[in-house]
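Subject: Sanity check before I submit

Could someone independently write out the structure tokens for this chain? I want to compare against mine line by line before I put it in a report. The sequence has 294 residues.
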Amino acid sequence: MTPRAEGQSANLIGGLFMVAAMAIFAVEDSLLKAAGASLPVGEILILFGLGGAVVFAATSLLRGEPLYTKDVISRPMRIRVGFEIMGRLFYVLAITLTPLSAATVILQATPLVVVAGAALVFGEPVGWRRWTAIFVGLFGVIVLIRPGADSFSLLSILAIIGMLGFAGRDLASRAAPATLSTSLLGLYGFLSVVVAGIAFAIWEGAAFVWPDTTATLSLTAAALAGAGAYSCLMKAMRTGDVSAVTPFRYTRLLFGIGLGVLVFGESLSSSMILGSGLIVLSGLFILWRGKKTA
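---
Independent answer below. Compare away.
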């Protein structure tokens, strides 16, 4: 296989992992939003983080991997943990306090930040055609958000901060030592969620609420879904070019809106349909260009 063919194959595999991750993440979001109806956000983050950490710790032990190496405290990993805390905390706040579809829409700006970061930090080539498609996708996000409309509020800032945290996490994952497996990245990622939950719980001062059956099932399923989605995401970010794999994040828009409408009864407006179409089409174009020259 030629180097070009190998690169195209890696991009395709990375893209499939990304689609799977986005579908499972959307399910996770729905479960966390459901748990938020009866539990404080800090408690949700702590329990969710512990559940995911247990899953990844068990996976690492079954594979005979040590749970700690010196690479865990490397500079890229320290940066990654900081962005993980930022992304998880503010995005969970967003999905519990705002409509799931609105938070999902704002999250779609993540690929713009990631691709720009990949070009600036890793020197990956991104030509004017793909940049044009990215800005078309950004316009689609603006159409969906509708600044000044009832669907846009100051609470949307929570999702924006969360989006920036996730973008930084993904870029730091790319720079993380190759010696760290996906399981170890997941373990320390979910431990970061626990830290975020403890910090917010202390700041919020909310009393611990014993989870009822529905909340317990939601958090358990969310932890398992989060572990699966996390694995797929890390494999995606470590396979192929970031600028080629990242556009598949746009599929989360479809999954998130679908669950928001079907599960939580959120409305689907004409602007949401138009904006979603622009974002998906721009993502498909970027993928197509990724198979050619930048």
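---
OP: Matches mine. For the report I'm noting this point. The chain has a mean pLDDT of 82.
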